[in-house]
Design brief:
Two copies of one chain form a homodimer. By secondary structure, chain A is α/β, with parallel strands linked by helices. The first copy, chain A, has three domains: about 5-60, Orthogonal Bundle (434 Repressor (Amino-terminal Domain)); about 75-165 and about 305-325, 3-Layer(aba) Sandwich (Rossmann fold), CATH 3.40.50; about 170-300 and about 335-370, 3-Layer(aba) Sandwich (Rossmann fold). Chain A has helices at about 15-25, 25-35, 40-55, 60-65, 85-100, 115-125, 140-145, 170-185, 200-215, 230-245, 260-270, 305-320; strands at about 75-80, 105-110, 130-135, 150-155, 165-170, 190-195, 225-230, 250-255, 280-285, 300, 330-335, 335-340. In chain A, helix 11 links the parallel strand 8 and strand 9. The first copy, chain A, is elongated, with a radius of gyration of 27 Å. At the A-B interface, helix 4, helix 5, strand 2, helix 6 and helix 11 of A face helix 5, helix 6, strand 2, helix 7 and helix 12 of B. Chain A binds a DNA duplex (16 and 16 nucleotides) through helix 2 and helix 4.
Chain lengths: ~375, ~375
DNA sequence: ATGAAAGCGCTAACAT
DNA sequence: ATGTTAGCGCTTTCAT
């Protein structure tokens, strides 16, 4: 992987031999002095220390690694660190690694299987001690193969063909509870904008949404469900479309964190007031959600705990400690916290066409709401 | 006969020699086959390819590095990737590195010189091709020494003793223009909450603030200036204190991005209305600033461009291209954009304590910008 | 076209 | 306490 790095600008590196020669002693003595070996003359140690400083010696990790040093780098492969969830995760894992004597290497896949492959390969070539990864849905077969022979923890998402332990959020439960809340306060036309089902998280959360409807026997109009990329832009368009519907939703449920901004943009553009015109529930909980006016009701994630758990589990695997759960592959699913704040309210009476009481709902069955 | 499957799944690594032995050829032939050497039998190449797959061979980066491979990792050392500025930076640099054939290694210093040292050392030991760093104010001497013999670009902050080129935002100018705006619309008691002057960015921005006052001959009450850590918590306390003053500020200028959330919390707690009770200008421009009600007036940063420039400059240094500017160390200072939105207004007429609806509501004095 | 051998920087046996 | 040597995985002459 050295195609672009043509030449190092600074000169060649000072080695242990250079120091030995400079001091007129043997390189093994230098090595011992450096590693504070018991049988080493204090004078020699001191001389070596000074020579090291003077000559600017920096140990060569490659050489050490070659000698069988159990590398101490841990790879973290995330799709997008601008997503608050992943930002916090990176920070936490980094901290945890430092404490555990590891060096975290963060790589951003941008959800591209080719990038993902490059990163995994580089990590394997560097003999990383372990890898934490949020797998892309389209993970390449060769990537999968590369992941077989190294400690791995899947984070947030779970790839069907990967057997490595996973730590994720129970998105189905989270969305289920949120949707249930909306249904309970009377909404029957709830718009859902979330990730495509190729991602495990996307599929789960969508399932939570549909299950909530099933539970109360409410019909789910498929026109109200918009699936796409986990980005503000997609969400903005999707919410915009939803609002244009002849029979628009009375509430909105966002299935991923970066989508919030898009939804808010669309809402602002449509000049709709939350929650009087429309109820809104988001996913994730960056600090500003609770400062918004009105404070944003959301599905909060215990991000810190998840990141901690993840790092711990990987380190356990690396050191060959006891398994996280039963069997070789434990999948931990952490429950989100539904944070009811101020962006939900019962739906407004239908302006224009229908009347609310006794009027036949055009779409929903009111079955269970009495 | 070696059991291939066993080898592949075992913890120890398959080497080029294992393949040679498996195939009954010499390891140098394998090496040539792998690097697609011209004088190699096509059959052999094919056999090797299959053996590689079967045995799960992964090249050893350390061995290659030891042979003199220039190494293609670029280190990025940032204080805090939850800060939007740095999050975007990491994403951008990562992307740019991938395109340039490099592998970005992101390390988080948390502004701790010891962490910083560890990261720089690890990077140097790994023979990183170059390093992009936001130096901590208290950088250790040994860290500084380590940074002397490798391509380095300073990002966002600039360490007085480091001569490496830097790319940063002209915070003095940014804050100056913002403060000027507040002074022009009549504010005379402006609170400034920013980073301590030990950071170059902190010192610069504060200078911008004081200079704006000097320019119009306005007195600056030092009680209105609060310097501390670039975190929401500090800002919350500081703003809270400012609001308790017997003669409280009529406007607030925040000197760093993460402080915004803290300020908003304090404002909410004090039940103050922006901009009628108090004007507010922030630093940085995450997407939600322009969605806030009222839309947040802020000092915006061309983050993407800065990150791009930074990566480019480092790659230039690595490949020994033409210098960025004059001399060995060019310091690029990029101008921020003052984004006048809706959180500033002329101060309320000063009378006793509070009045509610006297102030003229002129939100967008759009004309001004930098 | 392929094999043999040297050597990159370092550590750890093994000899002094 | 210090020197000598071998070898980690790989590429690269140099011989075949």
């Amino acid at each position: 992987m050295a195609n672009a790095a043509k030449l190092a600008s600074s000169g060649s590196h000072v080695t242990i031999k250079d120091i030995a020669e400079y001091l007129g002693i043997s390189h093994s003595t230098v090595s011992r002095a450096l590693s504070d070996h018991p049988y080493t003359n204090a004078d020699t140690k001191e001389k070596v220390r000074r020579a090291v400083e003077k000559l600017g010696y920096v140990p060569n990790a490659a050489a050490r690694s070659l000698r069988g040093d159990p590398g101490s780098i841990i790879g973290l492969i995330l799709p997008d660190i601008q997503n608050e969830l992943f930002g916090v995760t990176a920070q936490t894992v980094s901290h945890r690694c430092l404490r555990g004597g590891f060096q975290m290497v963060l790589a951003v896949s941008e959800d591209d299987p080719v990038n993902e492959y490059k990163h995994v390969l580089a990590l394997r070539e560097a003999r990383a001690a372990g890898i934490i990864i949020t797998p892309t849905p389209g993970m390449l077969a060769k990537t999968h193969a590369l992941l077989q022979s190294v400690p791995v923890v899947q984070y947030s998402r779970r790839h069907p063909r990967l057997s490595a332990p996973s730590i994720s959020v129970d998105g189905e439960r989270g969305v289920f509870v949120a949707a249930q809340h909306l249904l309970q306060i009377g909404h029957r036309r709830i718009g859902y904008v979330g990730m495509a089902s190729d991602k495990s998280t996307g599929a789960e959360r969508l399932a939570g949404f549909t299950n909530a409807h099933k539970q109360v026997g409410a019909r789910l109009d498929s026109a109200l469900v918009r699936l796409g990329a986990s980005h503000a832009d997609f969400a903005r368009t999707a919410v915009g479309d939803l609002l244009q519907l002849s029979d628009p939703p009375t509430a909105l449920l966002m299935g991923s964190n970066p989508m919030t901004v898009g939804a808010l943009k669309a809402l602002r553009q449509a000049d709709l007031e939350v929650p009087s015109d429309l109820s809104l529930i988001c996913f994730g909980d960056p600090p500003w959600y609770s400062l918004w006016t009105p404070r944003i009701t959301t599905i909060g994630l215990p991000t810190l705990e998840m990141a901690e758990a993840c790092a711990s589990e990987l380190m356990r695997q690396i050191s060959g400690g006891p398994a996280l759960g039963q069997g070789p592959a434990a999948h931990l699913s952490i429950e989100p916290m539904f944070l009811v704040r101020e962006t939900t309210a019962p739906p407004k009476p239908r302006s224009g066409l229908k009347r609310r009481r006794g009027g036949a709902k055009s779409a929903g069955s009111r079955a269970l709401s009495a």
